[in-house]
Fold these 4 entries.
Entry 1:
Amino acid sequence: MTKSLVESAKQTSELLKTVQFLKEQKDNVVKVSNTIKQLKALQELTKNNEILFRTVQQDVRDILNSPYIKAGEVEQVSRSFEQIMDTAIDDLDFVNQILSSDFLKMTDAERTAILMEKKVQSHEMVAELEVKTRRYREIISFRKMQDRINNRETQY
């Protein structure tokens, strides 16, 4: 009887060690999973910001240089795109603080949640920028067509 109790105690001890080991491994898997989520969110955020900056550099310059954008509209067009870019830069600074500073004590899950939220916001900014760009291009196209109609030669 004593032998079986000793043997049972050994098995229980080994089981407890195994359970502890499995808990540690589960925690490690969760940490790795959160890190992967953070990296994916960062990649998406980076991609979206590259799209934003590229669009502003190329498309906005084309819009502003168009002869069909009136002088008084240049400031309004610039301001509307500038606002999006300021928000994108502020978000990047905030993300940088979250990732590099221990001042903001956060768990990996909290950090991941914020990164995911910023990723969604960056998607929305890209969509907003595309809408504004399309709208201004349509205005330019309309004015161009209007100019052709008004300045065509009539033959009777």
Entry 2:
Amino acid sequence: MTNITETLIFSGEICTIKTNIMTIRDLVNEKGATVIDVRSSWEFADGHVEGAINIPLEEIPTRVDEITEMKGPYLLYCRSGNRSGMACSILQQSGVSEVYNGGGLADMRIALM
């Protein structure tokens, strides 16, 4: 089992997020997580995880209601894990539970192999 560790900075606080690859697989394959790609639409068009929904980071705050209508848990990713970490924080602050940072696109592809 491999761990992906990322250090993110939110409002001056350093947050370390550890995501277990097996957990990503479980979230998608066993729990039917909704996978959300928070990159721009052009990044998404260039390649994404199969079945992912594109909601760019800047749209997350205005689409919280739409997201909560989707089946949880919610697994978010971007290019490096930074934007998805910010999106997770926004959703959690909006009261959404079961939100997970899948890291970057490469991390997700490896985890879902």
Entry 3:
Amino acid sequence: MHSKFLFILILIFNVPTIIADEVWNSNYGQIVYAKDVGVTAYWTYKYNGESGIIFIPGLAGILERRGNYEGYWAQNKSGTRCQYARPGIDDEPTYYWGKFHIQFTDLNFPTRWTALWSYCEETPSSVWDGTPEYHKLK
């Protein structure tokens, strides 16, 4: 009986550490580091009512000395339809995606970042900045 009660107390008081995702405010809304799949980090966001995802190969599990990474963003709809589909939200194919090149500004977690993005295969030139949302990290 005591072990069940103790287990419940541990679960209740550890909830904040279980849900401590890395979160940023950006010029395109809030970004959440959702999960790692293999070596790829999956970030999620919502912009103009559309959910989106950013895939960043090589970033998974890296908390210190983050550098530059090249990935891509994807949504179910956006301003430009690409010629071919890529995996998007829930790995469903989408024709609405683009390049995402990111550079982390600080050496250690949590860190600011600046990215350049584009539609489809265009050269990234639009700026996307992120600043840690500290109160979500506690």
Entry 4:
Amino acid sequence: MSNNSSGTGHPILGIVLAIIGIIIVLLLGFLLGAIAGGIALLLGIIAVLLGISARKKGAGGKGITAIVFGVIAIVTAVAMTLGTASLMKELKQQATEKNLKIAQYMDKPYLGVMGILTGLPQDEASINEIIEQLNQLNDSSN
């Protein structure tokens, strides 16, 4: 069993976790909103803590890198979550102003697109009506 007294494994793990967090929030942030943001935020915090721990154990530059990537993951998570929630609120407001049926299913802006999809009706007539309204909205904006 090797003794990892310099803590070199901690910063590398921190860097990997932070990068995974950044990727999750950038790829899934709009779809999953706060869920993806929360995961990325947690991974970023863990990365920062691992970087601080590694710095205390003498890992130097790798510890700083883990901290920097962790902070980037945290900032990206917060920005994407707030941006997605703001965008979804704006979309709901526009849908409400145009009396679109989909507006009543947009009660969870913090969940991004998934918040809409989980609230949609399951019957074909309602779905077709929503699709028709969205097509009309798209045609009027072009």
